[in-house]
Design brief:
The structure is a homodimer of 437-residue chains. With 437 residues, the first copy, chain A, is of the alpha+beta class. Chain A folds into two domains: 88 residues, Nucleic acid-binding proteins (OB fold (Dihydrolipoamide Acetyltransferase, E2P), Beta Barrel), CATH 2.40.50.140; 298 residues, Bira Bifunctional Protein, Domain 2 (BirA Bifunctional Protein, domain 2). Helix content of chain A is 31%, strand content 27%. The first copy, chain A, contains twelve helices and 16 strands. In chain A, helix 4 crosses helix 6, helix 4 packs across helix 12 and helix 5 packs parallel to helix 11. At the A-B interface, strand 1, helix 3, helix 4, strand 6 and strand 7 of A face strand 1, helix 3, helix 4, strand 6 and strand 7 of B.
Amino acid sequence: MDRILSSSLSEHIGKDVTIEGWLHKKRLLGGLTFINLRDRKGLVQIVIQDKKEIEKLRGLQTGTVLHVEGQVVKESRAPGGIEIHDPSLTIMVPVLAESPIEIDKPLNHKPENLDTLFDNRVIGLRNLQEQKIFRIRAGLTRLLREFLDAHDFVEMQTPKLVAGAAEGGAEVFKLDYFGKEATLAQSPQLYKQIMVGVFERVFEIAPAYRAELSATTRHVTEVTMLDIEMGFVKGIEDVLDMVQDMTYYALTKCYEQYADELKSWNAPKLVLKKKFPRYTIAQIHKLYTENTGQTITTTKDLTPDEEKWICEYAKERDGCEAVFATEFPLEAHKFYQMINPDNRQTVLAGDLLFRGVELATCPIREHHYDVLIQQIKDKGIDPNDPGFSHFLLAFKHGLPPHGGCGYGIDRLVEKTIGLNNIKEAILFPRDINRLTP
Amino acid sequence: MDRILSSSLSEHIGKDVTIEGWLHKKRLLGGLTFINLRDRKGLVQIVIQDKKEIEKLRGLQTGTVLHVEGQVVKESRAPGGIEIHDPSLTIMVPVLAESPIEIDKPLNHKPENLDTLFDNRVIGLRNLQEQKIFRIRAGLTRLLREFLDAHDFVEMQTPKLVAGAAEGGAEVFKLDYFGKEATLAQSPQLYKQIMVGVFERVFEIAPAYRAELSATTRHVTEVTMLDIEMGFVKGIEDVLDMVQDMTYYALTKCYEQYADELKSWNAPKLVLKKKFPRYTIAQIHKLYTENTGQTITTTKDLTPDEEKWICEYAKERDGCEAVFATEFPLEAHKFYQMINPDNRQTVLAGDLLFRGVELATCPIREHHYDVLIQQIKDKGIDPNDPGFSHFLLAFKHGLPPHGGCGYGIDRLVEKTIGLNNIKEAILFPRDINRLTP
């Protein structure tokens, strides 16, 4: 008999079926044995009365792989309203070792327990609640791609093994590449700008590497980034609009398609408008000071406190918990970003903030060859560095006004669900202290 | 006026429109200047009569970014049947440097010219013919994901920074990870098997790294792999069927959706049946010898010649140019694969061959904890190596029969289009001699 999945059993009431899965839980109750069997669709309860069948499970632990033939019975008290009665069990893979972690109830995600959580990841992920994080994650990446496909963005794969750390700044991982030095790409920044000259609109979802020395709730060494870049923009508003529409699409669809998963995590209710409010950094500083009484030096970037505060403020005042902070101070300027021609103390960039954190920085790039070279020099970098030659070539041969963003997938998942540490949103996270599992 | 894309101009015949793009080609003809403007949808021909407008283009080269306002006119002799007349030009970004590579006609893909092709990749990709490779590539990855989503496979991201080279064998890239040694993952093999215990069915499209010392048409150091893994399989036929159905879906849809792109590359006609023929390695050796007169030692793996030959044979005889070669000889056995219990000289693995090359190896894994440990020892590897501990834990706590494959995306693109070198299918290829652009 073909295997029936737990989600389809209600179509087979009264019939004999075959199900297969893992022993997820076992309890004894008045001479009966109740087991929960887990398959990829969820759990099904099996009631075993026959002593011979009960005996087969003696000494077997969670994780034991079972083949079960039995009758589907409607039972409102059972999870899913279905039970299997009179089962005949075949032990496909016996498990004798006790589970290193209890997977039948939600796992402990308290900060002090996260190391235990990740040490036991291989088994802990079998917890249904834990799985939901990664079903939502798969859903969000699918929805982001759907939106981008529908808006003429071409998906690409750019190299992660690169020559030199052309972006400069942050720490990079270096490796020996047949006698040359290679680095692991911190982002596809230069490649995606080059590709604007090819497809106008490109995107990539891929790992990016930061040799971060910090051990915080926000730092990992391997992140998954969605990078998008679009040409022929009339101004930063075009970029912000695209990022806004994409975020609105992915989040609202995610809340529809993963309602149960989000609910089981007590994810916050989604408070979103189609148009995300936009405040300049200067406005946010002013509003923050007026509302909290705390003074912030007005030329600087937002503090983490302000990022949290403005999201709360926009949620209450504008009915939207995603907000753009615009007109970044010059201190945050990177060589490839365009300085605001109307106010040369600011950069044409906007941060997408959501639930208190930055999800993406969305700058307009400097697309004028001569200005770009000058900006590289101004940062004390040599534009003749071989790591730049191909990048600069794209500008020498014509790139239109363009902009884009690097969008943190891990952070999006973390904040959508309401987790507190980026690592909780990553299957097998990597940080300064963790290279396994 | 909002910008109209070249593909939508036919909806605006007789009207004034704004178009933007790159100067792709310029010719003078009887006092008129004809230019082709390239945008993300293709080319549009612009006829310039006004001397003042013609003058604006003096000295400007391919790549110059233009904003053009003009009238849409039907003209059957123009590409796309549309022309722009009486244009008013604005030079958005002037390009004075001559293009390092002629992008108006198909680029030279002859083996001796490939280095030039890749050295000039940044500009060469602006060639419309060249772009098609990467549009087809984006399409194939989208179609593969579509199929896998529809068959309950959960997309995941596993780490590429790993401790040790647990798979052993091939060369790996090593790097310093905060004083520890890390390697770049050669494949997500161990992680995807672990994840069978979580979701039953998982997949990942991600880079994989091989420190390949060989410089051939088949070797690159950074490949894009589709890895899939599925649990509760009844036998290798389940895995082969899934890989077959996925390949059939992606290729037939690709040939529908990218008919023009494939035609412009003279891609071979697709000769595929829903059920791919399956031959054992022994059968192929025998058939090859019978048909070609050349003898092959019958216990060994297929030679490259045989791989080519069997695809041709299956195409003619079975009407299908995708074929599975099954029952691999024990020499090819990896520790995590299952030895055929019915013939312990063979491994439960099947290669998917397409147009003469192997696209994927699809083995059944050894899922019995004790047997797996023995197989690791038999390969001279220490099962207590820390790189294995988490992998083995998944088996200790129950993994069902499972199998899957690593499917080379670069090769699939190469062979679908009919290219001759894997690097032609990669935006910015990496090999022993190439780390740029």
